[in-house]
Here is the input.
Amino acid sequence: MNSTYIKAVQFKWANTSLVLTILMFFLSAGVFAQDKKLISGVIKDNTNLPLPGVTITEVGTTNVSVTDMDGKFAMQVTTGKAIEISYIGFASQTVIVDANTKSLNISLQEDAQMLDAVELVSVGYGTMRKSDLTGAISTIGADDLVKGAISSTEQVLQGKVAGLTITRGTGDPSGGSSIRLRGGTSLTASNNPLIVVDGIAGVDINVVQSGDIKSIDVLKDASATAIYGSRGANGVIIITTKGGTKGLSVNYNGFTGVGFASNRLDLLSADQWRGYVRDNNVTDAIDFGGNTNWQKELEQTAYTQSHTLSINSGNEFSGLRTSLSYFDNEGIIKTTGLERLSANISTYQYVLDKALKFDMGLYANIDKWSPLDYRIFERAINLNPTIPVYGPDGKFTSVGGTLYENPVEILTNRTVDNKRNRLLGYFKTEAKLFNDFTAVLNTSLEHNAMQGSTYKPSYAILEGLSERGYAQKTYAEFTNAQVEAYLNYAKILGNHSINGMIGYSYLENIYEGFGAQRSGFETDLFGYNNLGAGYNYRLGDVYSYKGKSNLASFFGRANYSYEGKYMVTGTIRRDGSSRFGANNKWGVFPSASAAWTISRESFMQPTENWLSNLKLRVGYGVTGNQDGIGEYKSLSILGVGQDSYYDPVTGTWSLAYSPTQNPNPDLKWESTAQTNIGIDFTLFDRITGSFEWYNKQTKDLLYTYQVPQPPYLVGTMLANVGELSNKGIELTLNAEIVRGDKFTWDANVVFAKNKQKIEKLSNQIYETDVIYSGSLHGLSGMSNQFSQIIAEGYPVGTFWGYESLGVDDTGEIILGSEQKAIGDVQPDFTIGLGMNFAYGNFDAGFTGYGSFGQEVLNATDMMLYDSNRLPAYNVADDYLTSGIKSAPKFSSYWIEDASFFRLQTVTLGYTMPFKKSGTKLRLYVLGENLAVFTKYSGVDPEIDLTGLSNPGIDRFNNYPRPTTISFGLNFTLAN
Here is the structure.
């Protein structure tokens, strides 16, 4: 303003211009000295914790300040003006600055509609606000996890995350699940995501129980997972457990339930069998006089109970949480089940005015279970329904025949006891260095040990009778010792936010085990406790092993944000692994991503009433896969073979050592490059969601190839050759459909579609046209036959055989002239659905998940529809009307659409009102696996789709999933 004035009067009062300029300057300075004042303060949240990155704006001006890492700020403000204090996820506040205002202490209150954006998300070696993310990450809170009889922790995520497929191929409580994120990336290595618990990478997911989980973050794209380098190709699942909270609280959560078989195969009953024999005048049929449903004879009513007691205590400087839980889940099949005792303790302590923080955690559990001999299901299908379980003498009935042993006897007359101990401990130190730096040192130890004991008495059919008693003891353990150190830098400069991290990690894995077995016992009294009493010893009855691997890593990450609108992230990791060849010990895994919060642009103001958040994300990165590949695979190995040599010194014959593995100095990790484009949005302040598109290109696939002899000493070689792609889309939607004072209704939907294809299998050195998989060996008439191929241009699990053209008048299945692709096990798309309702003190909800478009080979039906089975062997009920009169042949006739939607859980609860706010009692009833909507004719359409041996093959997959009804309560007492 002063310079304009001077120019206006310069031609008239040139000689006085300098005086006037100086005068105006001092007048202006005097005015500002009166109107501007310096204010400072601290901004905290509703729990009294400082909030960094809060924006303080002088209303109507461009004068802006931002709080530092301690929530502090200072700025010049015009007296009488208002300042607006705003932070994503919290309600804004406006304060008038008057002459007496000097220091402000502001507490912001959470805004439920915006809280999702400020939620802290684990990103590996740190956390970020959800609004600042540039990668594809899904977060599930404890309240949204799947509830019920959770025998394996990954079940809590089933149907909850778009692109994450969790398949449980059995109803056995001791059975695990296969986990796939955005399709499999390997043929022979592990396809499971990396599990991280409280910052400790690579641990067993079952070391943590579902009731101890605070949140789970699923890192999907390479820009998010590249910070884990050669272990991040299959995605990363980060579990954050509950910690000490302010005050003192005690919580009990328990339930008891009853389960029963949800489905069985529909086979001929004894009366139907007799009717068939009579109507067809079958003269060689033997009626044993019984009326036995062999499937039901294997089953039992399964009782389940779960009890968890936890204690929380804490204040601003320290906290403690401990819990103890007991879980007992009987299986639907007799003798099976899982019993688990778990305990954990975690604590933190601040010292030196919060400049130093110590964290410690210890998790332990013990599992006990009896593994099932799955051969019982084939016998239960085979046996004539007129054969009674017990004979007149009270002993198990035994009728000679191939695969015709009494399945109840197999189940009963043997003892199999397994036990597993898990232990995870960590100690973490955080130190604030200067104002902007924080150093972290995290050390951890994980130990997992499993013991197996088996005894089959001398009177037991199968191995017991033939071996005159059989005993076995096994032991295996592994230990992961890990140390990680990293330095974080965080700085806010006006509208600029800068974060950086560099670190080092070292992991040592040691595994070992041994086993012994003996047969030929004079007495069954010892069971498996005296192997030395067995007199029959054979080569291979005793074994032991030990191995070790090391992984050393350097890593770093940098984040930049401007005004919360423009964000850039870059990561890099350099891994060195002892598992791979001398020429490829080290690898580099970079990533870069960017995000633009479009909704914060001024041109988006017309849409703010209905589109309050719109964010575009783009990322690219490279990750590796070194898990699932055993140690020493790059080295030449000698082993004991069948050959012997004569030692003239001792005058004895000894077993000779010979090469069993070729060296491969070029062996390395499988590498996956992934591009991801995502959009996050919020509509009408009620609907939040994200859409993702990704393209994953995996190269250097590991597979064992045939090689010529010579020059190689062994005829096979593990090598990096193949290429595979996964492309897909994902959609996540969360909606507050009704948001009233008494009634609320919210819903969540996830959808994912993935397309997989083998791009390459051979190169100039290692060649193969096709890999045969899906073995049918062991099925009647199927010796050395395969049902699937792995070939270029097809997805893994492609069924390859003759197309069925129908059944002719003679009962023969008409087949096409040549073999071709007749289906594959990869689903076209998967979905998850959940809804929650609340009215007053009542609450209700349901969850479900589905998979659509995958084909399954119903090998069970293929065996049951055999014209040679009757009258000795049982058949399917509808076989008699099928018109089939031929021996089974593999073809598309037995390939079925296994699409399904499972009603996973239904819950109804009531929370009792108490005058004391800290006391809460909720009673509930929970139903699990109440319905499955499918056209699949087998026991259950959810078949294991992983591996190369038999993915998507229903081969006597008859352990039924239980339908369970549970009653429970949750009681909390807090001060």
